[in-house]
Specification:
By secondary structure, the chain is an alpha+beta fold. It has helices at 5-28, 35-80, 100-106, 110-113, 124-128, 131-142, 186-234, 243-274, 287-297, 323-339, 396-407; strands at residues 84-89, 145-152, 158-169, 175-184, 283-285, 307-313, 319-321, 346-353, 357-363, 410-415, 421-428. It contains 11 helices and 11 strands. The protein binds adenosine-5'-diphosphate.
Length: 429
């Protein structure tokens, strides 16, 4: 409207008075021909203005009614939305309104939360960092602010939230508060994390496979050429009294075939571990018997003149163990002891029965391991620097460690370069 209410009253009043005076003057003095048309003219103007004002007023009232209805419908909608916490906070960060979604997501009822600070929804760490204030400040600076982070429910539990703050101003650009919309994205976050884990595992597996191809082509070359040359050499000893030479070569062949078998075994074990399909299935087992069997099976893998001595301490008893996993652990440790020790050396294997555990110790007289490299020994593909010329993949001990983790066991070692190594496996019993 062009004029204020007061101006309008004065204007209409003056026009009314003027037309009244002019018409009255015309009636009192009918000979004056000019005053009547003037008075009627002003009266007409007065009616027209009245009409326009009335029309305008009804229009404004209808628009106002419509706006109020729309507001009511909107606030009903906001109050009943369940998946989003939508509420208003004052410029100081205190809750001014609350909807069903907010109650569902955060756990507070309207009566409990109105007037309380939004810091209640933040974790202690975020509060210490001043996050609530920072968020409001950023919303003021940028016109709106979105953040994703952990938020706290009334019961203290936390959830991942996507939060948007938007400042609200009145007609005069005075800050009235903020609208805050919170969405619980814990489920989406979990799905996202699961996808990331699967993707990472897939990438690792691919990397592993391509490493295997290059490693296998490299590691297979030496033993295969030894096998080939030994086989050719055997043919050169046809006489009966040449048995010693033949045996030397068949032993080399067997030992190299065993090396290849071990490499393939390691890769298969690792692939199964990576795919998460290895599980611990314990059965009651006699550890002494099992170890003796493994030592016998290893005969072809040990070098010429090497001997494995088995001893026990304490009271031997049946223990619950996954014999398949344990066989793999012992085979790896024994074949390493043999591989990294000279011909003719001895390997001691002791079983020590304690009240709630068993220690299985493998002690060799081999090349030892540099102290600074010992902590990396159980990492995939790691090989110590003193292994040049000795074939291997650096996978065996990482598999041993992961199998023992599955079985609830442990492994540690003591070793000095040139003085041999001792690996100690501890199993619950
Ligand atoms: P690989 O023997 O195939 O290289 P492992 O994972 O079995 O792989 O062993 C990792 C590394 O640990 C070896 O490369 C070697 O440096 C060291 N190692 C393991 N066992 C012994 C041992 N008994 N004596 C000396 N070094 C060892």
């Amino acid at each position: 409207m062009l004029f204020s209410r007061r101006t309008r009253v004065i204007l209409l009043g003056s026009l009314g008075a003027a037309s009244f005076v002019l018409i009255l003057a015309a009636l009192l003095n009918p000979r004056q021909t000019i005053t009547l048309p003037f008075g009627l003219g002003i009266l007409f103007l007065l009616f027209t203005l009245f009409f326009l004002m009335f029309y305008n007023l009804t229009g404004r009232k209808a628009a106002e009614r419509e706006r109020r209805e729309l507001e009511q419908r909107f606030s009903f909608l906001v109050r009943h939305i369940k998946d989003y916490a939508i509420f208003f906070i004052d410029p100081e960060g205190r809750v001014m309104s609350w909807n069903k979604g907010a109650q569902q997501i955060k756990g507070y009822t309207e009566a409990e939360i109105i007037g309380k600070p939004i810091s209640l929804f933040y974790t202690e760490e975020d509060n210490l960092l001043g996050e609530p204030r920072q968020n409001l400040k950023k919303a003021l600076e940028d016109g709106s602010y979105e953040s994703i982070g952990l938020r706290k429910r009334k019961d203290g539990s936390v959830f991942y939230a996507d939060v948007v703050f938007t400042p609200i101003y009145d007609d005069k650009q005075i800050l009235k508060g903020f609208a805050k919309i919170t969405r619980d994205i814990t489920h989406q976050k979990k799905v996202q994390e699961d996808i990331q884990v699967t993707l990472r595992r897939e990438q690792e597996l691919n990397e592993l496979k391509s490493r295997f191809v290059s490693l296998a082509s490299h590691e297979f070359k030496t033993p295969l050429s030894v096998i080939l040359s030994s086989t050719s050499l055997i043919e050169k000893y046809p006489e009966t009294d040449m048995q010693a030479n033949r045996l030397k070569h068949t032993h080399r062949i067997k030992s190299n075939v065993n090396n290849l078998k071990q490499i393939l075994n390691d890769f298969l074990s690792l692939e199964k571990l990576e795919a998460g399909i290895v599980s611990n299935s314990p059965v009651e087992a006699d550890l002494v018997l099992l170890t003796r069997e493994i030592i016998q099976d290893m005969e072809e893998a040990i070098k010429e003149g090497q001997q494995v001595h088995l001893s026990t301490e304490g009271m031997p008893r049946a223990i619950l163990v996954d014999t398949h996993l344990l066989r793999n652990v012992f085979t790896n440790l024994l074949s390493n002891a043999a591989k990294y020790s000279p011909d003719g050396s001895s390997i001691d294997c002791s079983l020590i029965y304690r009240p709630t555990s068993v220690d299985i110790i493998f002690k060799d007289q081999g090349i030892g391991i540099p102290p600074e490299e010992q902590e990396k020994l159980f990492e995939r593909f790691f090989r110590a620097t003193n292994t040049t010329g000795i074939s291997g993949t650096g996978l065996g001990l990482s598999i041993v460690k992961r199998y023992l983790d599955l079985m609830g066991g442990e492994i540690r070692l003591t070793s000095l370069p040139g003085l041999g190594s001792t690996f100690i496996v501890t199993l619950p019993a």
